[in-house]
Amino acid sequence: MKKTILIVDDEVKIRTLLTRIIQLEGFEVMEAADCKNALKKLEQNNIDVVLCDVKLPDGNGVELSKMIKQKYLSVEIILLTAYGNIADGVQAIKNGAFDYITKGDDNQKIIPLLYKAIEKVNLNKKVDWLEKRLHEKVSFSTIIGNSKSIQKTIDLAQKVSGMDTTVLLTGETGTGKEVFAQAIHQASKRNKQNFLAVNCAAFSKDLLESELFGHKAGAFTGATKDQKGILEEAHHGTIFLDEIGEMHLDLQAKLLRVLENGEFIKIGENKPTQVDVRVIAATNRNLEKEIEQGRFREDLYYRISVFQIALPPLRERITDIEDLTNHFIEIFSLKMNKKVKNISEKFIQALEQHSWKGNIRELKNVIERSLILMDGDSLDIEYLPIDLQTHQQMKATFSTSSFDLAHVEKEHIQKVLHHTDGNKTEAAKLLNIAVTTLYRKLAEYQIQ
Q1: Domain 316-397 is of which CATH architecture?
Q2: Dihedral over Cα of 238, 239, 244, 247: its sign
Q3: Domain map of the chain by residue range?
Q4: pLDDT above 80 for 405
């Protein structure tokens, strides 16, 4: 898409000359003779850079810069003046102008300066986009994947979203359980209220109790004032209890009371506190086995598992890997200000053939690492961790005959001979065989 430059100058000859010079570079050019028309053009069109004279019939370019920047943050302004003035130049930059140059130098400086301004425009737009994405609420439409397994999971989650039913999300680490919990909350009638998450594995028993249920001042050393717990903060909203299988049995009993009666007792208090919260829990443990081993309450399990949703591991969603990869590349390329013009087929194949024990979280980390290492604008297999590279290379190298022991031995002997530059005595030493044995094998495998 062509970038658009707005030239603001009351002199027709200068506007015409600049228009011709800039159009030759492939830019779209618009013109305005004064501040009023310049602001109108900006309102009606998608302008990237404004090239503006300082002295205009109805105002001053320095002040116009301030007005433009207040309304159009991503637009860059280059000011032109017939007479260099340091005070004006300083004020122009303070007002947000990209640069301030003297007329007469424009033929030499204007085009390189325009390209620099365009680079900043692109960066500004990327930052704006990234900030919007960071503040974008997770919904089912933002979950990436078209595989049958993930679509089935999304369908189940959508069906339960409108209910107040307690949900238990199960699956391996890194499969996106919190993302699904947020999507369920956003699709529920509680979406205007708080969604609060707590990782039960991240706290000791006492700290988790305080985090969940709150405490009264003086309840323990360091408790200098009353403190609301997450359950109280999530009143009328949703609480997400990640890694619930790690919760201590005593706290499980208190949580069961919340689910059954909607009440709990804060640490250091005698009277119960009433709450109305929806609970979504998650675990990567087999809770039924935990019950057998006495580490999880059976009655709590039946309360939280009213509606279970099992999230598929990434190795069962191979067709989604390319879309997820492109998503993470988009995020990290913007964050690192890198351009990715090409992703090699081997790069994608290596990702699709990996076991992904860490699932989506592991894939995200691998893509971030690859972009950090990337030189140029192409992502190739060389930027992946060595275990992903090796697996792909071995798979590419092996044919059916590659599994034959004689074929493997022949290839190994050839590699060792190449390493020793054809020195058979040295090769025999490295192979830990007699030289006569090596000569016999060379004849057998017809190795020259």
Answers
A1: Orthogonal Bundle (1.10)
A2: negative
A3: 4-135, 140-312, 316-397, 400-444
A4: no
